[in-house]
Automatic annotation (TrEMBL):
<keyword id="KW-0808">Transferase</keyword>
<dbReference type="InterPro" id="IPR029057">
    <property type="entry name" value="PRTase-like"/>
</dbReference>
<dbReference type="InterPro" id="IPR000836">
    <property type="entry name" value="PRTase_dom"/>
</dbReference>
<protein>
    <submittedName>
        <fullName>Phosphoribosyltransferase</fullName>
    </submittedName>
</protein>
<feature type="domain" description="Phosphoribosyltransferase">
    <location>
        <begin position="11"/>
        <end position="151"/>
    </location>
</feature>
<keyword id="KW-0328">Glycosyltransferase</keyword>
<dbReference type="Pfam" id="PF00156">
    <property type="entry name" value="Pribosyltran"/>
</dbReference>
<dbReference type="GO" id="GO:0016757">
    <property type="term" value="F:glycosyltransferase activity"/>
</dbReference>
């Protein structure tokens, strides 16, 4: 992992989503469903859903990262797992925030394969080591990425509220 950081802010995220959506539209791809990989993919899927005028959004919960640079041996699908009947014969766009190792995207892509008419992947960032080479990528980087939704620690009821710095937003 590089010591260099890629800092995505909320305003830059908005620009990234519009540019990513335009790339997808310019390619002529019109997905029937956007399948987001929770959690980071929820933001991406929501933005792409509006930008591409796709209202049919689904969520797949996958656990892989357990901390910064710490993962399980393999990604694991968490319930509820989407019913493949809902995806059958559809054009599916899998959305996530980053293709880092690519293991999570591969799990979801393979889950869809054989059941859907077409499956493609869209991410904001793709790392060089990713097992999956996404069809739609906003930016390629080897750097660690600070996402605006995960750069601050979680708020806790018993803890002192965290006031985000303007750099984090």
């Amino acid at each position: 992992m590089s010591d260099k950081r890629e800092n995505l802010t909320y305003p830059l995220f908005g620009e990234a989503i519009r540019e990513l959506a335009q790339t997808i539209a310019d390619d002529g791809y019109e997905p029937d469903i956007i399948l987001s990989i929770a959690r980071g993919g929820l933001f991406v899927a929501g933005g792409l859903g509006y930008a591409l005028d796709v209202k049919n959004l689904h969520v797949m919960n996958v656990e892989f990262y357990t901390g910064v640079g710490e993962t399980l041996d393999l990604p694991v699908m968490l319930p509820p797992v989407p019913n493949v009947v809902d995806l059958s014969r559809k054009k599916v766009l899998v959305a996530d925030d980053v293709a880092d190792t690519g293991k999570t995207l591969k799990l979801v892509h393979d889950f869809c394969a054989g059941h859907v008419a077409d499956v493609r992947c869209a991410v904001i960032y793709e790392k060089p080591q990713s097992l999956v080479k996404c069809e739609y990528v906003w930016k390629r980087t080897a750097d660690w990425i600070n996402f605006p939704w995960s750069v601050l620690p979680p708020c806790r009821k018993s803890g002192t509220p965290v006031t985000p710095s303007k750099d984090a937003l």
